[in-house]
Amino acid sequence: MMIHTTILSWVTFVFFAAFVFYLFRLLFNRAFWGSLATATAWAGLAAQTVALLLRWKASYELGIGHIPLSNLYESMIFFAWSIVFIQLALERLTAVRTIGVFVVPVAFLMMAYASIAPGMNDRIEPLIPALQSNWLTGHVVTCFMGYAGFTMAFGCGLIFLLRDFATKTDGWISRLPSSANLDRLMHQTSTLGFIFLTLGIMTGSVWAHYAWGSYWSWDPKETWSLVTWIIYAIMLHARFVRGWQGKRMALMTVFGFASVLFTYFGVNYLPGLHSYLR
Amino acid sequence: MPKPAGKLWSLFSSVKLTIVLLTLIALLSVAGTIIPQQEEAEDLIHRLSPGVAGLFESLQLFDLYHARLFYGLIGLLSLNLVVCSLNRFPLSRRQAFAPPFPAPAGLFTGLPPDHILATGQSQAEATRMLEPCLKQKFRSVRKNETAEGTILSVQRGRCSHFGVYLVHASILIIIAGSIIGSLFGFNAYVTLKEGESAGDALLSGGKGTGRPNFTVRCDKFTAEFYENGFPKTYRTDLSFLRNGRVIYQGPVLVNHPITFENTRFYQSSYNQSRGGTAYISYARGGAAGKALKVREGSVFTLPEGKARATVLRVEENLMEMGPAVKIAIASSRGTATFWLLQYIEEIKRENPDLLSRVPLLNPALFQPYRFTLERIEPIFSTGLQAVYDPGTPVVAAGALVMIIGLLTALWLSHQRFWVSISPADGRALVRVAGRSNRNKAALDRAIDRLCISLRETMKR
Question: Could you say which of B19, B255, B406 has the minimum Cβ distance to residue A211?
Fold first, then answer.
């Protein structure tokens, strides 16, 4: 087993540990657990970054050098990386940690699925002609930053719904961010995701223009990315013009995230041009 | 601005309609990823009863993205966008250019302590010091003298009110670009064998109008593979001709289309055609061999003139046994027909009794000659997509406008600041307050920063 694959399987457990610490912070109200959670997540992210760089270097040693963003395995690893990166960035900016309870497990599940799913190909393979393009990096990075932004919004939405359903208001429920804060965070992270998804669709279009002969061919992944884009566009309009807030927005983030997941995974079960992700 | 009255206007100016239209477009798009579309629908159509298939086809279910319903929804959405934008624009303009004075009511009440600066200067002196500092940061400073003191007003991010109109305009530009493409562009697939040409007749066989008046010739197709069998490179060398003269030559690769007179050629697929050139040799007994270059249908006579050999087939890969050539040799002894395999020695090693079981594979079937196949040069045919789309630059411009618009609308905010300089016990009291159209947190941070720099200015 290559060293980067070993590191990545360890990172899976590090993210799981970080999730447990985030949960402890919420349940037991000790600042210690929060600091430990953040430190663990940073450690996992750093190790994952090193592993990705090693994998990149290893691909050059195999004489087929390319950025590790070229198949389902590599994209899932990068999805997890983006989620943890945005979580930690948001923690620094807003000092809100609790979202980690809901989004770090998503990163953990991505890593776990990438490591153990049957038929998952974790070998470094050469790029087929369709992927030999300078647009690969820009397209994949913008798309996954967008997906990660929507994952954060989904985390905020879940916490909002949890607060909403909870009958008691004391204990750990009271340590969740306030509804107003969650509402603002849901909006900001969805906006971030929306801008990146727009960039992702555009870079994809430019690439398709060079590779497939048309900037848009109604390939299922293209179509589903448009559907996701429309869902978040509706969300922005509902808020800006019709003043939607709170629970409705929280439901929209869950709905939007379902569409994101379908755009990423579900589409693989439909015939189309993005078949390298199967 | 006069506002056309009427129910239609109010219908099209509603965001509810936008949401309904966007939802319908999304649902229709999803349906198109589930129901097979265009060529892919043929299987399904054959399985359906003619009545049902006819009904579905008249509903354009198998070409949803080009259906009347889809175009209709896009048309309504465009109209909705235009009416909504026209309707809201005056409001945005009023907000963007709202006069700073009189300052909003209650602006300076309930300020946090760090937004209130006690100074050692007089009111006039403080104003004289603060005004250039604000001017340097915001360029334009408005000043108002009130009963309570001097108020300076600055602002930034006015354009954030207009970002949304850029986004709406960009969507219309992109729709316009795609209409231009479908009206004036064309899209065709051409399959060319090496050495073959396609003229405008072939090229215009596809959808759309535009007719290129040149000929394209496939000179050579190259496919390279990695060690694991994955494709590495597909490349076609093309020549463009007019009146029989080559005017332009170049390669086309996946991700690297070639453009000639506004028509772009893409490497889209390839095929190995039957046939090709086989390099064979034969020897008689221990004598030196004779090498030949043959194709399907080639005829050659063996020395001594008694036997006549015909090449029946040239196969790139015969039943997973590799390159093979089928030869029939007619002589006074009758006709001997056999396959010549390039890898016969390897295959024989794995199956020692092969030749006795399958004499058809014996390269020495026609005694006393022994034939050898050195190699085959296959003939490829390349699948090219020829595209002319004058709408592409329009769509690209639309995308650029959209990004600028989104960043302006979602990233920036219109921040307005008021600095009140009022006398308190002969010393100036400076209070800083602000208003913003969105992102209160960013405004608070901006006021904090402003207070810090104002405090430093006053110390100097």
Answer: B255
Q: Is the model's pLDDT at A169 over the cut of 80?
A: no
The closest CB to that of A125, out of B40, B230, B385, belongs to: B230
Provide the number of CB pairs (under 8 Å) joining chain A to chain B.
101
B118 plus B188 within the same structural domain:
no
Q: Distance between CA A210 and CA B387 in Å, rounded?
A: 11
> Looking at the DSSP assignment, which residues form a beta bridge with residue B271?
B381
Residue B114 lies in a domain: yes
In this structure, what token pair is assigned to residue B122? Answer: 């007089």
CATH of the domain at B124: 3.30.310.80
* B133/B36 same-domain check: no
Residue B252: inside a domain: yes
Chain A contacts to B (CB-CB under 8 A): 64, 125-126, 128-130, 132-133, 184, 191, 194-195, 198-199, 202, 205-206, 209-216, 218, 220, 223-224, 226-227, 230-231, 233-234, 236-238, 240-242, 267, 270-271
Whether residue A133 and residue B255 make contact (CB cut-off 8 A), yes or no, is yes
- Report pLDDT digits (tens) over B59-109: 888 888 999 999 999 999 999 999 999 999 999 999 999 998 888 888 888
Kindly report the pTM of this predicted structure. Answer: 0.86
Rounded-to-10 torsion of CA A230, A236, A238, A240: -150
- Both B303 and B397 in a single domain? no
The DSSP code sequence of B307-346 is -EEEEEEEESSSTTS--EEEEEEEETTEEEEEEEETTHHH
Task: Provide, as residue numbers in chain B, all residues whose Cβ is less than 8 Å from the Cβ of A187.
Answer: none
The answer to whether the Cβ–Cβ distance between A199 and B403 falls below 8 Å is yes
Q: Which of B171, B1, B21 is nearest to B82 (CA)?
A: B171
A196, closest residue in chain B (CA to CA) = B403
Express as a percent the part of chain B with pLDDT over 90. Answer: 38
Interface pTM, i.e. ipTM: 0.91
pLDDT in tens, B325-365: 999 998 888 888 999 988 888 888 888 888 888 888 888 88
Domain holding B308, by residue range, is 275-379
Total structural domains in chain B? 4
| Peptide bond before residue B423 is cis, with ω within 30 degrees of 0 | no
Greatest CA separation for chain B? 133
pLDDT at B361: 87
Residue B397 sits in the same domain as residue B261? yes
Residues B331 and B386 in one domain: no
Residue-averaged pLDDT of chain B: 87
- Whether B14 is in a domain gets the answer yes
CB contact under 8 A, A212 and B255: no
